[in-house]
Amino acid sequence: MSIILNANHIYKTYGKDESEVKALKDVSLSIKEGTFVTIVGQSGSGKSTLAREMEKICKNSRRSKKKSQHWKAQKSRRL
After folding, report:
1. Which residues, listed in sequence order, are joined to residue 10 by a DSSP beta bridge?
2. Contact at 8 Å (CB) between 1 and 30?
3. Where are the beta strands (DSSP E) in the chain?
4. Distances in Å between the alpha carbon of 44 and those of 11, 47, 63?
5. Cα gap 28→40, rounded to integer Å
6. pLDDT tens track for 4-50
7. What is the distance, to the nearest Å, from the Cα of residue 30 to the centroid of all Cα atoms in its chain?
8. Which end of the chain offers a freer environment for a tag, N or C, measured as fewer CB atoms within 10 Å?
9. CA–CA dist 14, 31 (Å, integer)
């Protein structure tokens, strides 16, 4: 099975200085196609934050892929 999501060294910090909270610290994961994934943990452990960061990774990946496909289409028209 191929990897459909690969995230390495995710960090997320809220606040600044003395009010700084490290919600995610050096989190890495890979998810293979067809895999069922659950995120479990205590309240405040960063589950929702991790899900939001993974969503951003997926959205950015889709945008990059669209830009790449658009560029390829433009390039092929010029040839």
Report:
1. 27
2. no
3. 3-14, 21-32
4. 15, 8, 30
5. 15
6. 888 899 999 999 888 999 999 999 988 898 999 899 999 989 999 99
7. 10
8. C
9. 26
